[in-house]
Backbone:
């Protein structure tokens, strides 16, 4: 399709291109304002020039408030200053082809108006020629960046909460790569810890069965059932002890309620996985102390005992194979799968601990090794740098438990140092509930002398995903998986595509439905500011009429449909694009590179999603109100076709940044 459309090119000159058309207009305005200020007020120092987009179009495309600041210095009214600048600036305009006029506006603003035909010409030529690269302005100083995302424990399928992590991480990686950085996508496999020991215990009880169905779902079922039975076993003992010991009797009611809850969970799990549940139950009932077995597995794995290593590596790999299937379907890639256990077994964790022990920041309390995070922050004056209030006390970080096993954050210290040997900047996409742990990690790095690295370690935090009416818990087996979400989205998209295009070939319908369904889920997880929760409802996610991936994809398909219908080669006259909606589209497309720079430099992928939706809104208004193929004269039709093509390319490029395909038909 792109090749077909590319061959139907309107006849225009391609002598000048811009990677940032609106940026060029902005620079011309700044230069003109600077030269005018120097000429009108040669002996006055003025602050750095900034230009803002006015709140309403009648005030132009850019505006400066410099006159208000100058008024304080030279004792003249802002409006008087603005009027003097207006007169001189307009004399210089012939040297600035993208500027149509400069106007003073009460009470003292300087407004700049774009030469829209010139801006349209520059923008459309640039979009057409740069094509897949349009908008992707390169960083002045490219870096090597590691984006670590998802990193879900290999104990159950990726659920909807982790799905947001995956989609945000993938979008960040795509945006940063398009910005010219060398980006590496890493997945940290948390195979050390109690959860891995629990799943290993259940898997061993079943004598290491071959997975039935999707492997990560099978492992998830084993984990939920085993975890549930361990909780019931623990609570039964606690209830019995409370009944015997009058001092603990006050806890009896609470323990009984908790036990009843887990018994209800067991009934749910038996109903969902009857065969698997009863197999584990049969094996479990013959073990006197299952908790002891789990703890033994935990210690053996951390020590690197071969049998236990093989057991946990085997079942972790089974689960990861399921993750890889999900990622492949969604177009999410991982460059490096990093095993947490590696840093325990190769001695990196112990080496970090040895160095930390020699600092004044580590102390032992009741057999537990702690890092005094507050002392580190105070000693190196780091609170402001890490966004911590001066009066906020940072809790200490537990490095080693009393039983000698390490904690997740302790192991993450060694992993972070390893990552910084490979990258200039590290971005950890991790839930906002880990804010304290990520701060303590940075402070641990500072205690080791890695202060600059800690400042280049970014915690990209995100909030929860909520499905109204659903409460989720991985341990209880109550979760909505990424796979289930995609399956339902694709099924719903198929119904909508069939309704809208009943004559489409069945295979094409299925293919479009897959693209639309996956795109709908991904857009819903990325379009909200990551610090706000996502409220996931199907009415919104698959709304073909507004603010959704299907709506934006449909707009792209509509542009492709228009372009398929013609092979016009008339010269375009951009002076004929006089309608307000045409002006809006020219400006929006020319501004895309600036939106992209903001999203890349400030790590805001939701800006791309918001921009794509706004562009689709403008285009659909244009489509509904103005003819394209039948527009007269032919030079106007050619100009509008160029506009449609620029919309098509820009929408496609925005969607690509957030990992969503732009179908040509829907």
Residues:
């Amino acid at each position: 399709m792109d090749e077909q459309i590319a061959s139907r090119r309107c006849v225009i000159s391609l002598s000048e291109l811009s990677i940032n058309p609106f940026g060029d207009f902005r620079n011309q305005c700044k230069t003109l304002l600077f030269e005018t200020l120097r000429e009108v007020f040669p002996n006055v120092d003025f602050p750095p020039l900034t230009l803002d987009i006015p709140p309403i179009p009648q005030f132009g495309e850019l505006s400066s408030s410099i006159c208000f600041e100058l008024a304080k210095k030279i004792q003249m009214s802002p409006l008087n200053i603005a009027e003097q600048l207006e007169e001189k600036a307009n004399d210089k305009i012939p040297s600035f082809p993208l500027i149509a006029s400069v106007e003073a506006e009460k009470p003292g603003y300087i407004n700049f108006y774009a030469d829209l035909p010139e801006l349209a010409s520059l923008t459309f030529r640039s979009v057409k020629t740069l094509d897949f690269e349009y908008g992707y302005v390169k960083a002045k100083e490219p870096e090597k960046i590691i984006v670590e995302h998802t990193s879900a424990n290999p104990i159950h399928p990726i659920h909807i909460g982790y799905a947001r992590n995956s989609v945000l991480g993938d979008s960040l990686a795509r945006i940063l790569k398009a910005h010219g950085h060398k980006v590496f996508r890493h997945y940290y496999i948390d195979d050390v810890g109690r959860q891995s020991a629990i799943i290993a215990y259940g898997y061993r009880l079943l004598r290491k069965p071959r997975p039935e169905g999707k492997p990560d779902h099978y492992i998830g079922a084993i984990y939920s059932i085993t975890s549930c039975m361990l909780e019931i076993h623990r609570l039964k003992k606690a209830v019995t002890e409370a009944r015997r010991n009058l001092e603990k009797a006050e806890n009896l009611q609470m323990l009984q309620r908790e036990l009843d809850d887990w018994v209800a969970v067991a009934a749910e799990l038996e109903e969902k996985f009857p065969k698997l549940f009863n197999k584990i139950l049969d094996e479990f009932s013959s073990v006197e102390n299952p908790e002891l077995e789990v703890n033994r597995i935990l210690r053996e794995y951390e020590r690197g005992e071969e049998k236990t290593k093989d057991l946990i590596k085997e079942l972790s790999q089974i689960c990861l194979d399921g993750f890889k299937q999900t990622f492949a379907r969604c177009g999410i890639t991982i460059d490096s799968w990093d095993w947490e256990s590696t840093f325990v077994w190769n001695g990196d964790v112990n080496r970090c601990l040895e160095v930390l022990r020699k600092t004044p920041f580590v102390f032992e309390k009741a057999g537990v090794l702690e890092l005094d995070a507050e002392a580190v922050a105070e000693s190196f004056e780091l609170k402001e740098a890490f966004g911590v209030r001066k009066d906020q006390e940072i809790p200490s970080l537990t490095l080693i438990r009393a039983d000698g096993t390490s904690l997740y954050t302790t192991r993450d210290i060694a992993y972070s140092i390893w990552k910084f040997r490979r990258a200039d900047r590290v971005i950890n996409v991790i839930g906002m509930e880990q804010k304290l742990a990520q701060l303590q990690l940075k402070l641990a790095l500072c205690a080791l002398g890695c202060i600059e690295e800690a400042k280049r370690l970014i915690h990209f935090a995100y909030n929860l995903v909520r499905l109204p009416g659903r409460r989720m818990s991985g341990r209880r087996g109550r979760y909505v998986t990424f796979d289930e979400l995609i399956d339902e989205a694709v099924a719903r998209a198929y119904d909508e595509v069939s309704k809208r295009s009943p004559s489409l070939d069945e295979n094409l319908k299925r293919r479009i439905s897959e693209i639309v369904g996956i795109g709908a889920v991904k857009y819903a997880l990325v379009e909200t500011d990551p610090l706000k929760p996502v409220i996931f409802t199907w009415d919104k996610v698959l709304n073909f009429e507004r603010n959704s991936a299907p709506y934006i994809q449909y707009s792209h398909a509509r542009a492709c449909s228009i372009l398929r219908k013609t092979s016009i080669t008339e010269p375009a006259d951009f002076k004929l694009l006089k309608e307000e909606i045409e002006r809006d589209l020219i400006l929006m497309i020319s501004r895309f590179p600036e939106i992209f720079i903001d999203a890349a430099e400030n790590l805001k992928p939701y800006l791309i999603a918001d921009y794509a939706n706004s562009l689709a809104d403008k285009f659909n208004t244009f489509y509904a109100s103005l003819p394209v193929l039948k527009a007269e004269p032919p030079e106007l039709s050619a100009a509008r076709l160029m506009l449609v093509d620029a919309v098509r390319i820009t929408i496609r490029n925005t969607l690509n940044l957030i990992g969503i395909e732009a179908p040509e038909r829907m």
Remarks:
- Residues 144-190+339-466 form a domain with the Rossmann fold fold (CATH 3.40.50.620).
- The first strand starts at residue 62 and ends at 64.
